[in-house]
Design goal:
The protein is an all-alpha fold. It has 13 helices and no strands. The protein has two domains: 82 residues, no CATH class; 230 residues, MetI-like (MetI-like fold, Orthogonal Bundle), CATH 1.10.3720. 74% of the residues lie in helices and 0% in strands. The model has no long low-confidence stretch (mean pLDDT 84).
Length: 333
């Protein structure tokens, strides 16, 4: 197992190298020069104080991010700084990329964690129930709900929830992380937490609705496969109670592939929900990355895409390890 992990880590480094090279090449060849725009804005802001000229800012930014050295040399310039943890200053947020990440990551993490927990609580039991009652009304209902969840786009679910609960019922605000009458100086820590939690309800429901469908279908399919296995028929022939057959024999083996899927989802808690956070104006890493991309913030965009690449590779590694851990029949050669 140790040798397997080492090999996978080395392979992940190679994949990361080429993935980021592809991303850097795409950003390098953007049709409009965001570097020139940023240099012009910085020169205008500093002109009143006798600061650098547009040409000086342009040269500094091009040198800092390797935009004046060609794709290959420029990429190695960026990579050398990234390896040292130096991703530069965000043009959009006017602070170091890592500092902006630290200030907003926990909003994304808690939102993702809440959605992740409810996804497991809802999807897995319903998937098992649908498999146990195959071709019944329950099965058709669960299948219909899962297909709806898979098919609906995020923006539609978010807009529908806003219309019902924010506009019609007025139970929640349309967007943001604080209420209209919230005053930070007068609010206690508990009031602040409760106010933020209230604004997390609709985004969390959105994430749950669009994510439970796939896990529900996956659980149902695996449960049906297990229920048709020979050892399940043997367990029933021995006279074991149905609850023990399902809960002990079938469910444990159903969880083997499900656990690997969930293990691969764990790093996603730190990548943020770009569309959902943007629609509800939740100050998370997804929200920050969206407006950075739209505004041509090359430093933060490169930082975010680097983070996404690392989390994706880490998720795949966790899935492989968990599959070998939970299933004793699997051995790594």
């Amino acid at each position: 197992m140790f040798k397997f992990i080492v090999r996978r880590l080395l392979l992940s480094v190679v994949i990361f190298f080429f993935a980021m090279f592809l991303i850097y090449t795409l950003i390098y060849n953007l049709p409009s020069s965001y570097v020139e725009t940023t240099a012009r804005e910085l020169a205008a802001a500093s002109s009143k104080m006798g600061g650098k000229t547009y040409k000086q800012w342009l040269d500094q930014l091009n040198e800092q991010y390797g935009m004046n050295k060609g794709v290959v040399r420029g990429y190695f310039t960026w990579l050398g700084s990234a390896v040292k943890g130096e991703f530069g200053t965000s043009w959009k947020w006017n602070m170091p990329c890592t500092e902006k990440f630290s200030s907003c990551i926990w909003n994304s993490f808690f939102l993702g964690l809440i959605s992740f927990i409810f996804e497991i609580i809802i999807a897995i039991p319903l998937g098992v129930l649908a498999a146990r009652k195959q071709y019944s009304i329950t099965d058709y209902t669960v299948t219909c709900v899962s297909l709806i969840g898979i098919s609906l786009p995020t923006f539609f679910v978010a807009t529908l929830l806003k219309l019902i609960f924010a506009v019609k019922l007025r139970w929640f605000d349309i967007s943001g992380m604080h209420s209209r009458n919230y005053i930070a100086e007068n609010a206690t820590q508990l009031e602040t937490i409760l106010d933020i939690a209230k604004h997390f309800v609709l985004p969390a429901i959105t994430l749950i609705v669009i994510s439970i469908g796939g896990l529900m279908r996956y659980t149902r399919t695996n449960m049906l496969e297990v229920l048709n296995a020979d050892y399940i028929r043997t367990a029933r022939a021995k006279g074991l109670p149905e609850s023990k057959v399902i809960g002990y024999h079938a469910f444990r083996n159903t969880l083997i592939p499900v656990v690997t899927i969930l293990g691969g989802s764990l790093p996603g808690l730190f990548s943020g929900a770009l569309i959902t956070e943007t629609l509800f104006a939740i100050d998370g890493i997804g929200y920050a990355s969206y407006y950075s991309m739209v505004g041509g913030d090359i430093p933060f965009t490169m930082f975010y895409l680097s983070l996404m690449s690392v989390l994706t590779l880490l998720g795949n590694l966790i899935s492989d390890i968990l599959y070998a851990v939970v299933d004793p029949r699997v051995r790594v050669n």
